[in-house]
Amino acid sequence: MEKLITLVSFLLFVGILLCPILLLRKIKTTKIRYKFLTYLTIGLFLNAVILFVFACWSYTSDLMLLEHYGYDIDGMNEAEFYGNVIPENIDKVKSIQRSIMGIGWPLKAIFAFVFCSPWIIVVYFVFYLTDKIKLNKLKIQ
Q1: CA atoms within 13 A on the CB side of 127
Q2: Would you say the C-alpha torsion 106, 64, 6, 8 has a positive or negative sign?
Q3: What is the pLDDT of residues 2-39, one digit of tens each?
C-alpha cells in the first residue's frame, strides 16, 4: 500500500516538473503569435490543477494509510483510535495522524502553487537562453 501511494506521489511530482517543459516544446512547434502569454496562461492553469490533485492526494493517501494500519477515525478515545493497530505500527500511525492535523490540504495547495509557479518562468527563460546560444553559434559558423 505504501509503495503504491509513494509511486502515485512521485508521478504527480514528476508531472509538476515536466509539465512546463513539455508544454513549452508543444507551444514552440505551433504558430501562435503570443507564445509567452499562451505558455504562461496554460502553464499556470496546468500547474494549479496538478498541485491541487497532489495536495488532495497527499491528504487522501494519509487517510488510506491510517485505515490500512487499523486506525479508527471515528473513535471516541485513544483506546478506540489505536485498538486495531499493531504495536509495531503505532509510532507510524501517530506520525501520520500528526501530519494530517494543522492546515488543510487546500491551503497546502495554495502555498505550493505560490512556491512552484516561478518554475514555469524559469523553464521559459532557460529555453529562451539556450535558443539564443544556439542562434549565436550558428551565426558564428
Answers
A1: 18
A2: negative
A3: 899 999 999 999 999 999 999 999 998 888 889 899 99
Report the helix count and the strand count for the chain, using DSSP H and E. Answer: 6, 0
pTM above 0.70, yes or no: yes
Query: Contact 69/93 with Cβ under 8 angstroms?
Result: yes
Greatest Cα-to-Cα distance within the chain, rounded to the nearest angstrom: 77
Burial string for 48-63 (b: 16+ CB within 10 Å, else e) reads: bebbbebbebbbebbe
For 84-101, write each residue's pLDDT tens digit. 888 898 889 888 888 888
Q: What are phi and psi of 83, to 5 degrees?
A: -60, -35
Rg (CA), the chain: 22
